[in-house]
């Protein structure tokens, strides 16, 4: 995540891809319980559909985590971790690994000076859309596994694991079903990727111009927190639509999901799970960027 003429140019694409995938996977392992809580909160509208006075099962990030752990066991908080790691290897490696090369492409190899914010945003949008187009099946399986709560006695699970989920979805719904929700997913991931990478890049660049600051862990921490906050504020509505479409096949399209959510649950529904989403993305970005900066240094020393 260096400048146009920064240290990132000293790393091959393979090194960038590998360091990005490693950092993204490590962040995924650390924060997936918060992601599971976020998905359950976003899909909770089903609990209040039949009975308006019914008590909501999940309340708040920590309450949701505690409820899942109590009813389903601690392991349930890591539901979807295998497809989650599949996703981060592909999506994380591509979106982050391609960011600097795409940014350089947009400004030109001979460009000197700070890259304009608009080009950083454009690079983030591009790599986010490209990466999730490849990784959408892993995202779908991850959400399907996370969405499945505690089942009544005698009711079998829809999927026995991530590989079974892939094969079952293809057999029952067709190969194209693996790209269910691709529209809102491209929108979500392109927007969030641009918010994360461009804001991290811009915040880091700005902080490094302040006397007394250097390219160290504290600077990476500040930039990572800022990236997570911007990503959640901008991406939460499309994130809710994506989770609902992937967790419930009754929606006809992205627009249908958006309209039904707005009509049935109100505009605040698009910010359901905002706190766990920020807890997830904020901590995810801090862990990922801190790890990325360190792993990049390892790859740079190898070249």
Kindly summarize this structure in a few lines.
Belongs to the mitochondrial carrier (TC 2.A.29) family. The protein is mostly helical and 303 residues long.
- Ranges where pLDDT stays below 50 over 5 or more residues in a row are none
Q: Give the number of DSSP strands.
A: 0
Instruction: Return the average pLDDT rounded to an integer.
Output: 86
Strand content: under 5%
Largest sheet, if any? none
Structural class, by secondary structure, is: mainly alpha
Mass-distribution shape: globular
The quaternary organization reads as single chain
Global Rg: 20 Å
Helix content: 55-70%
Distance N to C terminus: 18 Å
Helical segment count = 10
Run of helices and strands: HHHHHHHHHH
Keywords, separated by commas or semicolons:
69% helix; 303 residues; 10 helices; single chain; mainly alpha
